[in-house]
Write a structure and sequence with these properties.
Strands 3, 7, 8, 11, 12, 19 and 20 form a seven-stranded mixed sheet that branches. Strands 15-14-13-16-17-18 form a six-stranded parallel sheet, sandwiched between helices. The chain is built from ten helices and 20 strands. The N and C termini lie close together (12 Å). The structure holds zinc ion. The site of zinc ion has 6 residues, from α3.
Length: 344
């Protein structure tokens, strides 16, 4: 089968994927339909590594996917061939202490698609555990199914923030993750969410497609301080840091009210300075998240019910034959691109 393979840093090719995948009675075989290109795919493509994860041998890219079931294992009860599904890309070891403690995303041995050395899903078919495969309701499309992966991070962030009705939140970064976090925070009870970035076009896309209760601030042009103090005199209840910018990490505490919460989502490229004393004065609660756990069913239900409309996040489509073009396009970080989707 054809696969999009990262051979080494800066080199992607179409290649026959000939590795034999084991198929247990608890697995399903999926024909992949849509795959979203993620910042991490681009990072491995352009830098060959993310932190300690280094591309040392060829790896299939892609981890945000939907598909249709071709075959289900003999022990699989909740799915059948022909079902439309989306897949959670991280598979923990079932017996690890973290998994047994209910923290399966933190299992150090988790195998996550397109995180070296694990192959991703930009290929014709994939074998996957049924337990991490979720049926899509009829009114949820394949492309929305592929968006469940990033959406799960937004829903998990909102969940981690323990939002109270009427809270005001401030989200840094208007990429896919920042936007799904803003949408999830509103859906979880925030009255207003300030979304800030310096990329005007992305903010315009948000303004044109989403609720007026998301207040877009281009911090290169207008004063974020003024917007925050006009909406929340003592500061916002929650900051969601989804930019990974060291400058933001060094300064976000000033926007929080005393005893406010900060959810750290973005990953800075290197250790970033943080003013601990400023956070101590306000007794700020810093909450870290890593990917998500147990969020797929919630995210799917929120799309299906119309609570979360994620479709406008997809700004560009490419066919699988043009997947290299799609990667090169996304890697230039075009101002008007949010999610680039590859159709298999
Ligand atoms: Zn992703």
């Amino acid at each position: 089968m054809q696969a999009l393979v990262l051979k080494e840093r800066d080199k992607i090719v179409f290649e026959d994927f000939a590795e034999q995948e084991s198929f247990t009675p608890d697995d399903v075989r999926i024909a992949i339909k849509d795959v979203g290109i993620c910042g991490s795919d681009l990072h491995y493509y352009k830098h060959g590594r993310i932190g300690d994860y280094v591309v040392e041998r060829p790896m299939v890219l892609g981890h945000e996917a939907s598909g249709v079931l071709l075959e289900v294992g003999s022990r699989v009860k909740h799915l059948k061939a022909g079902d439309r599904v989306c897949m959670e890309p991280g598979i923990p070891s079932p017996g690890s202490p973290s998994t047994l403690a209910g923290l399966y995303n933190l299992d150090p041995a988790v195998r996550f698609w397109a995180t070296p050395p694990v192959h991703g899903c930009m290929r014709e078919t994939v074998v996957h555990p049924a337990a991490f495969t979720f049926k899509l309701p009829e009114n949820v499309s394949y492309e929305e199914g592929a968006l469940v992966e990033p959406l799960a991070i937004g829903v998990y962030s909102a969940n981690t923030a323990t939002i109270q009705p009427g809270d005001t939140a401030l989200v840094f970064g208007a990429g896919t993750i920042g936007i799904v976090t803003a949408l999830s925070a509103l859906a979880s009870g925030c009255s207003k969410v300030i979304l800030t970035d310096i990329k005007e076009r992305k903010l315009q896309i948000v303004k044109a497609n989403f609720s007026d209760n998301i207040i877009c601030v281009n911090s290169a042009k207008e004063s974020l301080d003024d917007v925050v103090s006009s909406l929340a005199s003592e500061g916002v209840d929650i900051v969601f840091e989804a930019s990974g910018s060291p400058a933001v990490i060094g300064s976000f505490v000033r926007y929080l009210r005393p005893n406010g919460r900060a959810v750290m989502i973005g990953m800075p490229p290197a250790p970033a300075p943080f003013d601990l004393v400023a956070a101590q004065w306000k007794e700020i609660k810093i909450l870290n998240i890593f990917r998500y756990r147990n969020m797929y069913p919630r995210a799917i239900k929120m799309i299906s019910s119309g609570t979360l409309k994620v479709r406008p996040l997809i700004t560009h489509y490419f066919d699988f034959v043009d997947a290299i073009k799609a990667m090169d396009f996304a890697a230039t970080m075009p101002a008007d691109a949010i999610k680039v989707m590859v159709r298999m």
